[in-house]
Amino acid sequence: MATRGIAILDFGSQFTQLIARRVRELGVFSEILPHDISLEKLKEKNPYGVILSGGPSSIYDKGCPTRGDLKALVEEFPVLGICYGLHLLASEFGGTVEASHHREYGENFINWGKTKKKQKVWMSHGDFVSVAPPGSEVTARSENEMIAALENKNIGKGFLGLQFHPEVSHTENGIKIIEEFLFNNCKASPSWSGKHLVEHLVKGIQDKVGPTDKVLCALSGGVDSTVTASLLVKALGADRVWCVFVDTGLMREREADEVVTAYAEMGLKVKAVFAEEEFLRELKNKTDPEEKRKVIGRVFIEVFEKAVKQNPCEWLAQGTLYPDVIESVSVTGKSVTIKSHHNVGGLPEKMNLKLVEPLRELFKDEVRKIGRELGISEKLLGRHPFPGPGLGIRILGEVNKTDLEILKKADYIFTSELRKHNLYDKIWQACVVLLPVRTVGVMG
Q1: Considering the entire predicted model, what is its pTM?
Q2: pLDDT at position 102, please?
Q3: Which of 419, 437, 3, 440 is nearest to 202 (CA)?
Q4: Which positions are annotated as active-site residues?
Q5: Which residues are paired to 274 by β-bridges?
Q6: What per-residue confidence (pLDDT) applies to 69?
Q7: 8, 289, 368, 371: least CB-packed within 10 angstroms?
Q8: Helix crossing, 364-373 with 223-236: angle to 10°?
Q9: Measured distance CA(388)–CA(411) in Å, rounded
Q10: CA-CA distance, 362 to 6, in Å (whole number)?
């Protein structure tokens, strides 16, 4: 941890990266580390404090993730345990954790201390702390009198434990609880900014990619791939970053030309491949959405492979974000898989390339913040998210040239009106879909 910050030990929660994000929002650097990182390595990083994340396990599960040095950890650093992290702390310091067959999930209410101040929180747990560790103060209880928060200031640097998740937006004033831990318990310094984040990501790329290796970057025209390419150029120089933009013909009206022009103005080395005919030919007679996705993915790889043969590279860069990753696999821990995702896996293995994903621990708004720091235009940064298969999955039924042109024009009219009335930036995603429906008009 070149920059001093907060170490987050990942016990497999799908909210772990959200904890890191909240810490960064408060101006403090955060780093997610494996739950079993050695105390020695942790001390080398010299964090202000340590957060133990939640997780899907019970402390009574065989082979559950744990640490045998929690007492030593608390001697060295202020510690915050969230949900599963609380159970580990309570068990280690002499409290009682009970397994429950009734899983408490979702909105709940707790009451703080003697004031009985009520707060809405988000719970997600099975086990619960029935008896607090000796010397600990129970600072909040749920409405059914279960321990919701406790604190111990008498051991080492002290620890705080929460049964709920302060990092999620559903918990009222959760950010204030994290803020209290950072600046009161840990005495952290709020010195983290967009500039520091760019420097951190650039160094990460330089440490990962060999000193002479070249990187291939697939550009889509979207925010994620654009910021990825800009970061790579800043880290490695334009001569070592080769970008390929594939126009599938399934993009919005005029979009391909606008994107290629924008990339040229940014000084990126981009090879543009216009392959609408190939995609439409392979999509003929295909009506099932999942089949269309697979066809588009397969043809993209085939077109992409042809384009890159003339310029061999060792690495493939992808603009994968944290929400993409967590659906498929935890960043460092053992979280539960939700589903596979189009940005994770596939292409690098087929092309025998190593993978670099500099944005994989970030959220979309953080990526836009980095883009501004890199000087990317607001027009590119403000573009709405767009599905990988493009308009191919916004046409219900077979994709053909005629219907594609109709959808492009309809989409263009809609987005133009949104911009005209200053609504485009207030909407997360403008979605126009062509339905296989015909209407009959009656005259007279």
Answers
A1: 0.75
A2: 61
A3: 3
A4: 83, 165, 167
A5: 247
A6: 94
A7: 289
A8: 50
A9: 17
A10: 16
